[in-house]
Amino acid sequence: MNDDTLIEQSEGPVVAVRRPDGTSEIVLICEHASKTMPKSLGTMGLDEVKLASHIAWDIGAQRVAEMLSDRLDATLVSQRFSRLAYDCNRPPEADGAYPERSEIYDVPGNVGLSAEDKARRANALYHPFHRAIDTLLDARLAAGRDVILVTVHSFTPVYFGTRRDGHLGILHDDDSRLADVMIDASAALELDQVLRNYPYGPEDGVTHTLQRHGLTRQIANVMLEIRNDLISDDAGQTAWAGRIAELLEMSLERLNRGRQS
């Protein structure tokens, strides 16, 4: 195992980077890319159905992000382990980083964690992931490159028994530059059910990655949430990757035009 004694050497790195030399100004992030549980944590008291469900990962998000990466020639940074081991869109001090309950499901393996347990999880999963993003963004900015941060997520169509009919959420924190042009561009492209800060917003604590990497560097940023039943298979993933790529291309053109005017 590594020096944090959580991830075995045979399990590989916690961070996956696709197209590290991508030419696009967009940097894609997928915090909840994987349902893989570190071997040392076992099943965390969950059955196979729960470990494959939306509580363990963002279904379809990684494949859409990979397609976007390839179409846009954009670098993609992904977490290789489940959000149940550590939710990388939460800071170490947040209870949600180690959820004892996710929606209607208890997570026994996260109950009663000590400060040492939490630090071990953060050291193994959170810090390497966000250091990789820091290093990438800072190197590009130091080289004088424009950088746009886009995080890719998916959401369950039924949450606590309530149906969610939106197709795509465009989320932002204090910096709404990119979100504003994307909302306008989605109307121009006649995309249905594209909603601002849906199904969550900054008040729900979901914009940690945007805050840490986007707001601190004053780079335009946005978080995308796609309803997961729309991207649960290859056809849906391909279709939505195409729509979002077109939306991002139009939005960046408008954003860059605004910078120059």
What are the defining features of this structure?
261 residues; alpha/beta; seven-stranded mixed sheet; two-stranded antiparallel sheet; globular
Walk me through what this model shows.
There is one protein chain. The chain is of the alpha/beta class. It is built from 6 helices and 11 strands. The model has no long low-confidence stretch (mean pLDDT 95). Helix 2 packs across helix 6 and helix 4 packs across helix 6. A hairpin with a 2-residue loop joins strand 4 (101-102) and strand 5 (105-106). Strands 1-3-2-6-11-9-10 form a 7-stranded mixed beta sheet, sandwiched between helices. The longest helix is centred in the middle third of the chain and has 28 residues, at 115-142.
* Strand line-up across the major sheet: 1-3-2-6-11-9-10
Low-pLDDT sequence parts: none
What can be said about the biggest beta sheet? 7 strands, mixed
Q: Beta fraction of the residues?
A: 15-25%
Q: Output mean pLDDT.
A: 95
- What would the principal axes of the Cα set say about the shape? globular
Report the total helices: 6
**SSE run:** EEHHEEEHEEEEHEHEH
Please identify the oligomeric state: single chain
Helix content: 25-40%
Rounded to the nearest angstrom, the distance between the terminal CA atoms is 54 Å
Counting helices, strands and paired strands, the structural category is alpha/beta
Radius of gyration: 18 Å
Number of strands: 11
